[in-house]
Automatic annotation (TrEMBL):
InterPro entries: Macrophage_inhib_fac, Tautomerase/MIF_sf. GO terms for molecular function: cytokine activity; dopachrome isomerase activity; phenylpyruvate tautomerase activity. Its main location: secreted. This is L-dopachrome isomerase.
Length: 121
């Protein structure tokens, strides 16, 4: 159920047409989860500043059931940061990435929760 969202002050015109597809594949690969569960959202043209400057910037969130933690997040921060810099030109020191490990019982899907779908572990 990985979900990745990015809010940025970049204009919509600067977002590559295939950004969502590439980001979905990146997240699935980085977390070792099926891409069929991945969601990706981008909100461009946000009115935002970072460190007092309106140069290109953003805030991102990656939520997942598991596969997040101290060491994993270091790798993910590097992987996602490099991806955003390459694809969008967002410098890594102009984007915060928040990692959220969601308990199975706190995420609904298909009329139930992942705790019920995946079993209690």
């Amino acid at each position: 159920m990985p979900s990745f969202s990015l809010i940025t002050n970049l204009s919509q015109g600067k977002i590559p047409v295939d950004f969502l597809t590439q980001a979905s594949n990146l997240i699935a690969t980085a977390l070792g989860k099926p891409e069929s569960y991945v969601t990706v959202r981008i909100e461009a043209d946000a009115q935002m500043i970072f460190g007092g400057s309106n140069e290109p910037c953003g805030t991102a969130e990656l939520s997942s059931i598991g596969r997040l933690g101290i060491e994993e997040n270091k790798v993910l921060a590097k992987t996602i940061g490099e991806f955003l810099e390459k694809q969008l030109g967002l410098k890594q020191n102009r984007v915060y990435i928040r990692f959220i490990d969601i308990p199975r019982a706190e995420l609904g899907f298909s009329g139930t929760t992942f705790e019920e779908l995946l079993g209690k572990k």
